[in-house]
Amino acid sequence: MLEITEYTKFLIGLLAIVDPLGAIPVFIALTVHQKKEQQYKTARLTVVSVFFALMVALLFGEWILWAFGISIDAFRCAGGVILLLMGLGMLQSRGHTTAEIEAAQDETIALVPLTMPLLAGPGAMSAVIVYAHQSSSVVHYLAITLCILLVSLSLLLCFKFLPWFSQHLSKRSIVMSTRIMGLLLVAIAVEFIAGGIKGMFPQLVA
After folding, report:
1. pLDDT the model gives residue 51
2. How far apart are the first and last CA of the chain?
3. What is the DSSP string of 18-66?
4. Residue 30 C-alpha from the chain's centroid
5. Quick one: DSSP state of residue 104?
6. Which of 34, 166, 40 is nearest to 102 (CA)?
7. Would you say 162 and 31 are in contact if contact means Cβ atoms under 8 Å apart?
8. Band of the pLDDT at 182, cuts 50, 70, 90?
9. 15 Cβ contact partners less than 8 Å away, ≥ 6 residues apart
10. pLDDT tens profile 141-160
C-alpha cells in the first residue's frame, strides 16, 4: 500500500481527467432532445459505465499489457504523454471536445461518446493502470476502487443537479475550473513520464 498522499494525488488526477464539471455542457448538448426522465436514465447509465470501465482497467489492464508485450514503464510514459496533452488542452480551455454528433433519442450515447472516449477514455484508464501497478496488496486495490467510486459519485452529483447547473453555471466558471484541473494534470503527467523514463533507463539516474 502506498502513502495516503499518493492516493490523494491519484484521486485529484482522476478527477481532473474525468472532469465531471466540464462534462456537463457536453452532456446537455448531447441530450438536448431527450425528455427529462430519459435524460436521467442516460445520466445514471453513464455513471455506471464509467465506473465499470475504470474497474476493468484496474483489474485487467496490466494483464492486457502483458498480452501485448508492453512494459509498464513504456505504458507509464505513453500515459503521461496522453495526460500531458489533455492537461495542456484543458489549460487552453478546450476540455472535452464536442464533436459534431447528431442528437440521439435513446440512452446509448451514455456508452459512446459519453463514457468512451470522453469520460473514461485512454487518459483515465492509463492513470488507473499505472497506479494499480505500484502495489499488489488487496488494500491498495481497495483504495484505488474507493477513488474510482468517489469520482463516479462526483459525476453522479453533477448530473443530479443538471437543472441547477444549466441555470447558474456560467461559461467563465467552467473555464476556470477546467484550467485549474489542467494545471494539476500537467504536473502529474510530468511525474508519470519521469517515472517511466527512470524505469526504462535506470542508468540515467544511477
Report:
1. 97
2. 26
3. H-HHHHHHHHHHHTTTS-HHHHHHHHHHHHHHHHHHHHHHHHHHHHHHH
4. 19
5. P
6. 34
7. no
8. confident
9. 151, 154, 181
10. 999 999 999 999 999 998 88
Q: Can you tell me the distance from the alpha carbon of 148 to that of 51, in angstroms, rounded to the nearest whole number?
A: 7
Classify the phi-psi angles of 185: left when phi > 0, otherwise alpha if psi is within -120 to 50, otherwise beta. alpha
Name the nearest CA neighbour of 27 among 1, 51, 56, 47: 47
What is the helix, strand, coil percentage profile of the chain, to 5? 80, 0, 20
**By the 8 A CB rule, do 33 and 105 touch?**
yes
Local confidence band at 204 (pLDDT 50, 70, 90 cut-offs): confident
How many CA atoms, within 13 angstroms, populate the side-chain half-sphere of residue 173? Answer: 9
> What is the tens place of the pLDDT at every residue in 36-63?
888 889 999 999 999 999 999 999 988 8
